[in-house]
Predict the 3D structure of the following.
Amino acid sequence: MCLTSLGKILKVEGNTAVVQLRKSQREVRIDLLKVKEGDYVYVSGNLGIEKIEAEEAEEILKTREEAGDIGGDFE
Amino acid sequence: MEISNRLLFFKYALPCSKTLEERGSLSREKRLEMLELVKSGKEPQAGSENYFKVAMAHLDFIAMQKKLNRITDEVIREYFLFGHDEAVDERYGLMGDFDPESCRTYSGIVRSANGNIVQVYTPMGTREFNGDLVSGIKEGDIVSTHRGYVVEKIPKEIASRMWESKRKYFPDMKKNIFE
């Protein structure tokens, strides 16, 4: 049940990024990703898992907001 | 990153795969196909590990931190036996919409094995698990479990570390049976 959270990168510093999740900000490692400020990423714990396109991310976040969900959708 | 022992990876990952099916990211046919292969000691086809995106990312990261160029058995065990709970706890803390107990991995000692029905004493107490993923399991074996399945026999030292790591979930848990 290792679900993820989806968020937007606010700041990148080396291998670390600050990600804005729905209700909080989290510092995550981004060693596995090529990302920049403004990108959307899935996060598991303190690890960035996958970058997704902004349009898709915003659609997912909107859907979740409407559903009252803040989790992720893959294992 | 390449996995040294893909069979071991799938033994740990597949017990969670029903969740992927429920979310539509893995078909029932593919899930059952992988499960049947692993039960018979065969590896699922190349690339099947990519269904488990989060697990693979964590394994890649652990291997990278250890400066390894492949995912070793040690890396697989480090994530599933000692890192997986964090993801479970994170989700439960956010949503509280599932039973976190069943999602965690546990160490335990086999009390009885009858066909594929295995009774294992774990920090949760004695529970029934499916023994299809391991062969030759018998009373007294020290094993790891994940979501209803016995995954593998593990060394006593690892079992002991796992047992202690669950104390935060079960404050009234009995003494470490592996010490």
